Here is the input.
Amino acid sequence: MNPPNDVVYFSTFRLDLRTGELDDNGTRVKLQPQPLRVLAELIRRPGETVTREELKHALWGEDTHVDFDQGLNFCVRQIRRALRDSASAPRFVLTLPRRGYRFIAVLRSLPVETAPAPKPEARPREKVARHAVAFRLAAVLAAALAAAPAPLRPAREGAAPSLRTMLAVLPFQNLEGGGAQESLSDGLTEETIHELARSERLGVIARTSAMTYKGARKPIGQVGRELGVEYVLEGSVREGCSALSVEARLVRVRDQAQVWSERFDVPQRDPLLVQSEAAERIGRALRARLIPVDGQDVVGA
Here is the structure.
């Protein structure tokens, strides 16, 4: 049976199936895009066995030639780590050897605290007493507000600038053109967005908006105006004999100047590990350049 809506709650966790955001008691849980997609597939069919083949078709597709078993095992390990779950004594994800997985926790469509028990109706005397107290408090508050000086309005000129630098990550271009490489390029785009969004000083456009520009070939200035960002990151992926070649470029929207670029090779291993390593390298480089330090401006601003 499908969950009741696109935002589900289980134990102390909240998962938005539309955006892939996982929270634990209001704190964002870091989980890479591919493991998040595996978790979402399991939650969409709570209590049912989701076979390994079904997960392969849903996440990797028919034309993706990767070490699927190793990739799926990596995803499940990451899910268990994020949920503090155990394979030997599972609370959330049950492993069915050689078959697949089953989500076994109870799902809710609302957090527990949003449905408090109704309070008993107050007796007439209690109502009168509460109304009298509320009236006296309102009178005191009104008098205090009348005596208080008018608040100063902030000056329009010279106001403090926003602390967040707005950035869009365009879909990485697949220079090989193959189906497997296309999936890896999209995964690298998602992982780079996820990595950069970890910083509170960067405002990163969501994946759903960024992916609409896949293959669009619009000018950077137009993309920046449409998304309302200051910088745009674009890049490409090319597969070599034993390594994946990634090239990334950071472009400032206002004058379309390239303020940073780097090309590096990542050894060919499990696709998820390749995406994670490449995204971390890009994230480190961009945070060093876009986040002000000791009051200094960002690079090239």
The radius of gyration is 25 Å. Residues 7-103 form a domain with the Arc Repressor Mutant, subunit A fold (CATH 1.10.10.10). The longest strand covers residues 257-267. DSSP finds eight helices and 13 strands in the chain.
